[in-house]
Amino acid sequence: MFRSQRADLRVVLQKCGCRDYLRWLERWEDLVRRQDRGILDHELPDEVVLAAMARLEMEFYVDEFQQLRLLTEYRQPAGGTKVLGAVEVASRYGGAIIEEVLEKGSALPEVHPFHR
Predict the structure, then answer these.
(1) What is the pTM of this model?
(2) Of 3, 8, 14, 95, which is most buried, counting CB atoms within 10 Å of its CB?
(3) Is 44 helix (H, G, I), strand (E, B) or coil?
């Protein structure tokens, strides 16, 4: 999800003191080319995920079918629907759901352990 926003992710990783993740970010193209699943699928600590999500300028909403969707100029929620920022989505449902929404257009949210 941060493929196009590496500068933002670099700032977050530097502030968190995440040296291993910074090294991986610098080698990103090579890791993707080699499909190094051990690194590419590595889960980031929750505090890093939430700090990164705070830098995203995306908004989401849950539609009438209980699907999480990205708010766009062409896709607006019904009146009275609460708009959620990336941090709130990640806190409630986990960061992976944002990537799923971006790839598939919507996703069925489940309450994440952060929010319980």
Answers:
(1) 0.71
(2) 95
(3) coil
